[in-house]
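Problem 12. The chain below contains 854 residues. Write out its predicted structure in token notation.
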Amino acid sequence: MSWIERAAGAITGHSRLIIAVLLLVTMAIGAGASGVEESSSVAISDESDATRASDYVSEHMSAYGPNTTTMVLAVRDGDGNVLSRTSLIRSLEFQQRLRDNETVNGTLVEQRASVGVSNVVARTAIRQRTSAENGTAGSPPPLDAQISQLESMTDAEVAAVVERVLDENVQTAAEQTAIRLVGQGYEPGSTTADARLLVVTQQTEKPIRTASAVSEDVSAGQVAARQIAGEQDGPESYLAIGAGLVGQQETAAVEGSMSIVGPLALLFVLVTLSIAYRDLLDVVLGLVGVVMVLVWAFGTMGWLGIDFNQVMIAVPILLIGLSVDYAFHVVMRYREERESGGDGVRPSMRRALSGIGAALVLVTITTAIGFLGNLTSPLADLREFGIAAAAGIVSTLFVFGMLVPALKTEIDSFLEGRGWDRSTRSFGSSGRLQSILGGGATLARRVPVAVLALAVLLSAVGMVGATTVDTSYSAEAFLADDPPAWTENIPSSFQPGEFFLKDNRDYIYGQFQTPDQQGQILLEGAVTEPNTLEAAATAEETAAAQSVTVERPSGDPAVASPLSAMERVAARNETFNATFHGADTDGNGVPDQNLSAVYGEFFAAAPDVADRFVHRSGGEYVALKLRVAVDGNTDGPTITDALSTVANTVEAETSGVEATATGRPVVTTEITEKLMSTVVQGLAVTIGAVFVLLVVVFRIREGSASLGAVTLLPVVFTVSWLLGTMALLEIPVSVITALVGSIAVGLGVDYTIHVTERFSTELAELPPQTALRRTVVGTGGALLSSAITTAAGFGVLAFALFPGLQQFGLLLAISIGYAFFASVFVQPSVLALWSRYGPSAVEQTTATSAASDD
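Solution.
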């Protein structure tokens, strides 16, 4: 007696003990569910040239340092002028309210926590009044002093200061900032505008490299700031974007999505179970099992400290589908045994578990390996998804491989002991559906080579298409859509909330130069060599010519370099002007000698400006920076390519200077590309691990390693078809859709193992063609029921509020369809060819020859 037969005997022979033990285990594991917390964090850890350069720029060549993040508010005035004295005063009062709010104030940086045109105007007015020196070094005047200053001035006086600070020809560092805070529609020299920006800077624990890797305190501060903005008196309206708001919106979208897709998924399960089982008790047992699997899954997440976020939405949907898959195989095989055996409940369940148990265990192991392939990802949430899903599939084996069969054994025995007939025909074993499912066996008998050739051809096409799948990062995938109109008619407790970020982002990125959409070129090394500024001038021209570079209100490209900054300072400082032009030997306006002296005078004349473009360490000048404002609505790879072109220009014209393109768009693109490469690596590792496992298991159990290999072949077909479909539908690989590959492998192996196991069992007693037909008809019904349920379960993600989750649900539904098709209509041909030409055929021929010789 094999170990699986002994286990089956224990489950059916001691069913009450099994039920009691597993219910106690469920209570213990389920207790951890209370520890599951919601999270919006999607944290990617990565080191690259771009991230190193970004950290360097933030630490040495910015006002706040690397551990900060910004919240941007676009201010629109209903009266038509956000530069009026009254509007600017209200803006300063709003900033004061932010300071007075404990939630917001606790996250703000110490100096210049909020910067807007109103601050620049007020500080300039104060400086003019006190006859201060040029520059803005030192502590800025407090907000109450800024408010008092503007209140003491007339409308005309404020307008005069506005005109000065927005004059692109006469600018300090602060005034240069001011021009970036008015919209693209601003007319230079005008004292009116219909929109302006306010930038609020918060302290963080670490550099923020992705849009939602912020702490709860920072997120709460941004949420509170937006709420305060909405409570302001006056005609101004505020549109806000920020990493913390992304987190808040994602959390709301997770809750909203689950409130919609959760009930729909359970409804689809209920409908499918009802159609397939045609038995109320089996439907109820199936639902009870699904609930217990979810209890085990969430309990395990709680005990392991795994948070529930937008990526984890897939876990319960996935486990619901897999639970139903296990349930169908157990119940349908039990029904087959009852129909063919003609004996009681316990013997039939024992034979059913003996026949299906090995497949369930193998499916569990291979599917868990598929999910654990995500451990190779640099994304922590994908790794945690793999762990949670693998734990969930193991719990599914215990619940539907032990608890539900024990419950069904006890209940059916009790009812039949009181005269109730509990025997029912299995789904797909008769009628038209039987003929359809048997089509795979028919094709395997008639044209197996043609079927295999067509599958290989389609796979080749799919793999070619896979090379064109977009791997660019898109923030749109993580920004919730506005809820559809029909959600207004569902109960209020299920209605999703307000989602504003996508519209706000489109408006702000389309109108302004925002801090998070700045590219930089970091020049390191021998930056005092004579041709360094010449190269910087060429780089500035190259950057200005890039299509991703936005324009200032004056129409000039929004590019700033050490050279352009020096030119502005030289225009207002005679001493530096003499040094600057004295270092120009060829008269082209670019210093080409004594650059150390030029940098030194630059710092002496305007330290606040120089510090943003030149870094000196230990008395040596070691780095320069170019800043390029880029179009926030352009995709990351395009921006990265443009900035890399600029960096290459510098390196081509200098020696001893290393130029690195960086900035948030570049860093995000590099991280995403690395993520995609690890997805491919993880998928390869997963397929390799599953291949080895199948080869070893089938060699031990069936005496044929090649049978394990042919079991995996339809899964390879499924994955290649899926990748080709992604290219055809123009669905990019994202943080969320990156999960599809491992899930497709896990589910695909699930289906093919059941087919191979059943075929191997039938082949021991029947000729290959008959064994194939018995296999696809007997197993096909359960596979079809499972495929419909799982595909529908993932299909409901089309109602999710994240575009990324909608794409994820569509791809999973398609992959399940492909897996079913490959296992029922392609795998029989593969098995037919294996039985005809594989090792078993050789052994059978050898045995026949030996018998003939005798």
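Discussion. Confidence is low (pLDDT under 50) at residues 132-138, 844-854. Students who got a different answer should revisit the alignment rule from Section 12.3.
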